[in-house]
Write a structure and sequence with these properties.
The protein is an alpha/beta fold. It has nine helices and 14 strands. The mean pLDDT is about 90. It binds adenosine-5'-triphosphate and magnesium ion (MG).
Length: about 375
C-alpha cells in the first residue's frame, strides 16, 4: 500500500512553455528533470503545484500560466495519481482567452476548473486528493527576505495540515478587501461595517488559533528530528497570535474589534491605512545548533533550515494523517555543498513518497542512478 501520492502520468496542454507534454513515470519514486536555463524544468514542477490548494508555487496570475500565442487559449493539467490502493484522475483547466492583459486593479475572481475523476471539485476539496509541499529557489533566503514569501510558506504548510485553513484564509482576505473598498468609497454604512468586522475578527482569531497549535506540533516534531540538518525552532510573530497565547479569546476579540474600529477613522485621512490582523503575521526561526536567528545565517544554512522544516513536516503529515506528501524541489542542489546535497538525497530516499526534483546537470543526481528513478533531460526544447 502506498501511504503517499505517486503521479503515474502528467499531461500538460498549453501550459507555460509547453504546447503538449506527457510524462509517464511508471510510478518511479524519484523524477529528476535536468536541462539548461529556460528549458522548462520549473514549469513542470509548477504545474504539479497547481494540483494542490496553494499552487502555483511562483507568484503568477492564472492567465499568465497559459502558453502565449497558442491556438486555443485554454491550458490544462491532467494527472493520474496513485494513493493508498486507489488510482484517480485529477485535472484542471483554465480558459485564458482575452485575459492576458488583465491589470491588478481589475476585480476579477480567477478560478481554476478542477475535476477529480468525473466530478467538479473546488480548490478547498483538493487536499482530499493530494498534498504537495515544495522547496523552491524563492525560499533560498526565506528567513531574511520580506514577509510575504515567508507567510505564504507557512500558510501553505498549515493549509495542507488543517482542512479549511486555506479556505478561511481566503474568506478572511476577501472580507478585508470588501471592507477596504467600502471605506475608500467614503459611502459608509456603519451597520454593514460592524457586521463585516465581526466576521473578520471571528475568522482572524480562528486562523491565529490554528497557527499557534500548528507551531507547537511542528516544533515537537522538529525537536525529535533525527538527521544531519540543523535543529530548528519556529516562532509565529503576530500581534493576534501573541495575545491569544496569554489572553482569553474574548479579550483578543475585543482588542481586534477595537483596532479595526480605530482604523476606520484613519481612512478619512489616508487612502489605505494599514490595519492590524492575522494577515500581517510573520514567522521566524532559530537555528538551535548555532544558537542564532535563522535570518542571520548564510544562504546555504537558510536552505538547510527550510529542508529541516520540510522533512519534519513530511513526517508530521504522516504522523497525523498516515500519508506523506508529494515533494517538489526546484533546483535541488543549488547552494548546497556536496555532502549536504548527498544527505538531502539520502533523507528523501528514506521517505516513501514521490519526489520531483530539478537541476542543471544529471551528474549532480548520481545518487539516484540505479534506484527507482526516472531521469528526464530536456534538451533544446525537444519535448515541448
Ligand atoms: N505563458 C507562457 N507562455 C510561453 N512560454 C512561457 C510562459 N511562461 C513562461 N514561459 C517560458 O518558459 C520557459 C521555461 O521556464 P522555466 O522557468 O521552466 O525554465 P527552467 O528550465 O526552470 O530554467 P532555469 O534553469 O533558468 O530555472 C522560459 O523561457 C519562459 O520564457
Ligand atoms: Mg527553473
Amino acid at each position: 500500500m502506498i501511504n503517499s501520492y505517486f503521479i503515474k502520468r502528467l499531461v500538460l496542454n498549453n501550459y507555460r512553455s509547453y504546447e503538449k507534454l506527457r510524462i509517464d513515470t511508471n510510478l518511479s519514486k524519484n523524477i529528476i528533470i535536468t536541462g539548461e536555463n529556460g528549458a522548462g524544468k520549473t514549469n513542470i514542477l509548477e504545474a504539479i503545484s497547481m494540483l494542490s490548494q496553494s499552487g502555483p508555487f511562483r507568484k503568477a496570475k492564472l492567465s499568465q500560466l497559459g502558453k502565449t500565442n497558442a491556438n486555443i487559449s485554454v491550458f490544462t493539467i491532467s494527472s493520474q495519481i496513485e494513493s493508498d490502493d486507489d488510482v484517480f484522475n485529477l485535472g484542471l483547466s483554465y480558459n485564458y482567452t482575452d485575459k492576458q492583459n488583465i491589470s491588478d486593479d481589475d476585480d476579477i475572481v480567477e478560478k481554476r476548473q478542477i475535476i477529480a475523476n468525473d466530478d467538479n471539485i473546488t480548490v478547498g476539496d483538493l487536499q482530499n486528493y493530494i498534498r504537495v509541499i515544495w522547496i523552491t529557489p524563492f525560499m533560498d533566503r526565506l528567513f531574511s527576505e520580506a514577509t510575504g514569501e515567508r507567510r505564504k510558506f507557512l500558510d501553505n504548510l498549515i493549509s495542507n495540515f488543517y482542512p479549511f485553513y486555506g479556505v478561511s484564509l481566503n474568506q478572511y482576505s476577501n472580507l478585508l478587501k470588501q471592507r477596504a473598498k467600502v471605506l475608500k468609497s467614503h459611502n459608509v454604512d456603519e451597520k454593514w461595517l460592524d457586521a463585516i468586522e465581526s466576521e473578520i475578527v471571528e475568522k482572524g482569531v480562528s486562523i491565529a488559533a490554528l497557527r499557534i497549535e500548528f507551531e507547537e506540533k511542528l516544533n515537537n516534531i522538529l525537536k525529535t528530528s533525527d538527521n544531519v540538518f540543523p535543529k530548528i525552532q519556529i516562532h509565529i510573530d503576530g500581534a493576534i497570535e501573541e495575545k491569544l497565547k496569554t489572553l482569553k479569546s474574548v479579550e483578543v476579540e475585543d482588542f481586534y474589534k477595537k483596532s479595526l474600529l480605530d482604523n476606520r477613522e484613519l481612512f478619512k485621512f489616508t487612502f489605505s491605512p494599514p490595519v492590524e490582523g492575522v494577515h500581517r503575521s510573520d514567522f521566524s526561526a532559530i537555528n538551535l545548533d548555532k544558537n542564532m536567528p535563522a535570518d542571520q545565517t548564510s544562504t546555504g544554512e537558510q536552505k538547510l533550515a527550510v529542508i529541516s522544516i520540510i522533512l519534519a513536516y513530511a513526517n508530521m503529515l504522516y504522523l497525523y494523517f498516515n500519508k506523506y506528501p508529494l515533494i517538489l524541489i526546484d533546483e535541488a542542489p543549488a547552494h548546497l555543498d556536496e555532502i549536504k546535497t548527498l544527505e538531502l538525497f539520502k533523507e528523501l530516499e528514506k521517505l516513501p513518497t514521490q519526489v520531483w526534483m530539478t537541476g542543471i546537470l544529471r551528474s549532480d543526481f548520481e545518487f539516484f542512478e540505479n534506484k527507482s528513478s526516472l531521469f528526464i533531460e530536456i534538451e533544446n526544447s525537444q519535448i515541448k
